[in-house]
Every structure is written in structure tokens, then in C-alpha cells.
What does this fold into?
Amino acid sequence: MDAKPRGRHIEAARNDRLILDAAREVFTRDGFDAPVAAVAARAGVGVGSLYRRYGTKEQLLQRLCVLAMEQAIAAAEEAAALPDPWAALESYIRACVGFGSGVLAPAADLIATTREMWEVATRARRHADAVVARAHQAGVLRPDATALDIAVLIEWLGRHAATDPDPEHANAVGRLLALALTGLRAGSPAPLPGHPPRPSWYYARWAEPL
It folds into this structure.
């Protein structure tokens, strides 16, 4: 008697995954003005099915943001398990750039911050800070590079779809990432210019939920 409900649950979970993967791809490729109908078409589901799961485009984007931050947490946890502090930091940065961690950053001006988004972002920041602090304590990360410097680096290099088929884009990002990692190493001859990114500048884009 439980077969049908269980089957419907599996199908609903599958459709949800299809919708989320399609939404990330469509919004990355076409921008956040892309219609929800394009997401449904890419996912191979009806628009009605999409709206039953996500009542608005904003809700869909909010869910994508949570998933991206959960990916960043997983990347930091995997990095923390590595014995070498530099390898851990590099693993974390490469993983976040690789899955396109910065893709949804421009959505900050378009959607409200939910309590879930805020809480997951706080956990993600705590995990990232731990990876960076460990590298600092081991003396392998240049002392004037901050966790926010690395967050901005990840965001700017990670504004692409993980499935981007353009090999030239992937090549360029890979080279820039290698250059950035070299510059982050302790022992760099010149200090960084300017001042570290200010938290008020970086985090003000996402207003704390009421």
C-alpha cells in the first residue's frame, strides 16, 4: 500500500532536482530575467509542476542560494579533513570556484534574504573562516590576505555555470585561479595594496531578515 506514495515522493524529489539544476543553468546563461517557463522547459517538467514546488521565481532563487551555500560548507568540511593546511585551503577555493559559487551573487539585489539563507550563510562563513585561519596559523597563507579577500576571489572567479561548455572560458579561469593561488602563498615579496575588504561592504548586499 505504500508503493504509490513512495513512488510519488521519489518522482517529486527527482523533478525538484531537475528544476533546480535547470534553474541554475538558465539563470546563469540568460540572467535572472529569464522566464520561469524557460526553466520548466529545460527541466522537462510542466510550468504548473514548477509553481507547485516554488510559488515564485524569488522562492526558486532563494532555494538555489541555500543549496550553493550548502555546497560551500561541504567543500570546507572536505578541506578540513586534509592534513596539509595549504592543500586544504587550495581544495576549498578550487571546489567553490569549480561549482560556480559566485553565480548567484548578483541576485542579492533582487530577492529578500530568508531566515534559512541567513543561517546557512552564517555556517558557511564560519567553516570558511576556519579553513583560512588554519592556513594562517601554519604560516602558509600570506598574513595580509583575509578570509574576505578569499571570499571575493571565489565569488568573482566563480561567476560561471559548473557545466559551462566553453573550453576557452574554463582555460582562462584555471589560469587566473593558479595565478591567484600563487599570490596567496606566504612569502610574496610585496604587500597587498589598499585595505582588506570591509565586512560592511561585502555583507550589506544581503540584508538580515526581520
About this structure: The chain has a mean pLDDT of 89. The chain has nine helices and no strands. The first helix runs from residue 3 to 30. The chain has two domains: 1-55, 61-203.
